[in-house]
Amino acid sequence: MTLNFEDWESDLLARIDRGLKYSKSLRIDAIELYLTNSRSLNVKIKGGMLDATQGGNIGVGCRCLTGKKIGFASASGINDSAVNFAIESALKISKTLPKEDERWSNFIQISDTGKNGIIDMSVTEISSEEVVNGANLIFKEAKDYDPRILSIEGFISVGHGAFAVGNTEGLLKSARNTSSSIEAFVLASENSKSKSGVSFTLGRGVPKFEGIGTSGARKAIKLLDSKPLNKTAQMKIIFNNIAVTELIRSGLGNSISGQSVVEGKSIFAEKLGEQVGVSSLTLYDDGQIPEDPKMVSIDDEGYPRKKTLIIDKGVLKSFIFDQYYSKIYSTNNTGNANRKGPQTYESLPKISPTTISIIPGSKTINELAAEINNGLLVEDILLGMHTADVISGDFSIVAPNCYKIENGEITTPLEPISIAGNLYKAFKQIIGLGNDLTLTTFGKMPSIAFEGFTISG
Amino acid sequence: MFDELQTAISKVESKGAEFVDARYDELLLRTIIKENERIEECKTIKRAGVGFNVYYKGATGYAFSANLSPTALEKASNDALGIARASSHGVKITSEVDPLTPETNISLRLKIKEPAWLVDISDKFELLSRVEESAKENGENITSLRVMYGDVSGEKLFTNSEGTEIQWNPLFIDLFCIVTSKTEQGDLVTAYDTRGGSVGFEFYKNKDMTPEDLGKDTALWAKEKIRAKASPAGKFTALCENVLAGVLAHESFGHLTEADFVISKVSPLHDKLGETLGSEHVTIIDEGILPSELNLRGFWLPYDDQGVKTERSILIEKGILRQFLHSRSTAKILNSIPTGNARAVNFTFAPIPRMRNTYFVPGDLSEEEALEQLGTGIYAIKSLGGQVDLDGSFVFQAIRGYWVENGEKQYPLKDVTLSGNILELLKHIRGATKDLEVYSTYFGGCGKDGQFPLPCGVGGPKLIIDNVRFGGEQ
User: Fold this and answer.
1) Which fold has domain B2-31+42-106?
2) What is the pTM of this model?
3) How many other β-carbons are positioned within 10 Å of the β-carbon of residue B464?
4) Which one of A165, A377, B151, B180 is most buried, counting C-beta atoms within 10 A?
5) Rounded CA separation A59/A74 (Å)
6) What's the distance, CA A53 to chain centroid?
7) How far is B306 from chain A (nearest CA, A)?
8) How far is B330 from chain A (nearest CA, A)?
9) Band of the pLDDT at A364, cuts 50, 70, 90?
């Protein structure tokens, strides 16, 4: 039984319909079924070793209510026995819970949908040979760039999938998606010093393999000339359009989440309408960027994906919500319910940003450097960002790819620099926005210059 | 299931597969999460599926299926052969295995009194309530209290072209507590602690392991952080507590000994076998089954996902690099022996070289003696992890700490960030205490190549390390 990709959504919807009928026979108060079917081909290149994996992530997640007691269960597979296992197990849990959740209101009711991203069928047709050849091209490009290139690690993934959500409020919706990504880490080595450069691409169709290896190699080789800074000081720093996305997203994942706001863990909880950033900062949570591999029409509870204005000219305008917390906070759902992957069916929907986008400024990175006059440029990689304290906002990270900015020019590469600051104060420490928007897995942002971070290197 | 897997293996061999590994996992995972006494999550996950790893002309291909019908198994094994064939034209380093004597009729189950999967859900809720009560009683200005319970049980089957047949039952339970308190300035500070291991439910009656101990320790720690100061920035001597030492052993050193990084030369250790990399106080072990008499809280792993016994590997012995961590194919490439380190986080991934329980071997100092030897510097405690770059540079965050002068703790510190290069750091380890602790958790684990969270144990004694760079504000 092999279905065409076009038919995956209707297949999932039919299975949900059967599951909902079964749950009716069990006299369940309220239930939500989430089914997913996705297939991916992943090729990993490590030095000259090649690992390829293929398979389908298929499964079912079920939320079930007895009164206001909520149980959840999931199973791998989407045949009737898997779906029924999830329903029965979730029901059993909901019956045995010690207390009701008084704040519960209801599952999503009938509503609009957003738009699906570009469905590029090329990813469903690509052969494993083509992907393997692409991996080899990355390897060859990097090796050929310079004899000092020691090793290459690359990860290529192409996939397509569909999911569907249905519940006892009458919702029955589906969405589908195509995606691809390449990440390459190139290591250069000379006189027992090693430096790495990273390059990547994201998309919704078969990726372009050309140029990835060369770009990573170029960055790694440049860094071989790095010198220690030998200084601990407060300095102005430009984070390039890749590095900055991880920094900014780390500052928003917790603080703008409706859950954190309601549960008393967001530093922004009482700050709606207040100035939280510089007036040049306008920032969205954008689940509707067509070229973004994450873009789908509905969130993981079935609510439409949206573009939500979070910070407008420095003023905090909105938080992001799923169904549960939007009801508690008496506000609109923003379509930010996400189930963590790759086995999304094993997770309850939780609030998280989609893609954070920032309105760019007008300057090139060189013009930003000229403005700063003296400081640092941080490129691409931040180590330890996930160790930031998302509640207080304090962070201390290491940037392995840094350059000195002297007299307005980007000059010497530097040995790894540690950078300390506060994620939330950072929004007010912005001193310049670039014009070079780029999309990463964290966001779509330009290069951004900050002041007031403590650096040590 | 062994028969179904063997049927698929035979069929795909007849189509040209040179060697085939087949796995079947059937796991049940149960999680309860409460926040501010509200039940946020109570769930059961059933995760069952098969995976085939096929070797063909120096290449491998892996394919998996959650559909367990005979046709689905056949399709998965054929897919694996198909991508191995495609890869065989492109490989520069070949993946092959040397023959191993097949192990048959292996069936392993850990002896425990009260299996968590038989415990009533209400008893699990009671454990969580006890953690909550204890935390509230001992804490100060608590703004958020998060408690979590998790257990995993089930079976793993492995068979291959050699006829090996291994079945074992993984198990793990964990209690986790997170307390957030508010300072007078309105800032929020957080503390985390955990109790668990590959143990039965009776574990929570042991000394220091009760839900009350967990709630109290976490709340007192958050309370202490209310008045903690920011860590100074610069280079200091450090005393790294047991869990932090374990994170250093695993994250910053252990990964560099994984043979795939060695073969690709990504690891700075790739050409250093037999060289002295650390001081005489540095011995790091990685093994699947911890010595039972020590009551360590690691993860029980008798076999890896290629059917190889998980015996002890000494990675570094008194400072000398001794061994890398291998799968069957990396062992062949490097002319070594498989070490039982081929692991996959679930059936959707091929096994790759991973750690098991990794720890520094203890020394002979007491904590007081260690503080005395530290003199003036930072006592850094616990960690939720860190990050390491390919060149060995790392950054870690200790989530608790003290400023120490003349061997005396002066005042508590907020989160403390350590950074440096592991090869430098190992040379500067000046001493180790005699107390060994190993821990692992259900709520998190090791990540590599998209495979997360893999349960691993980490640990060690307390280590005195000179010249550690601490981040922080000026």
Assistant:
1) PmbA/TldD fold (3.30.2290)
2) 0.92
3) 25
4) A165
5) 7
6) 22
7) 16
8) 10
9) very high
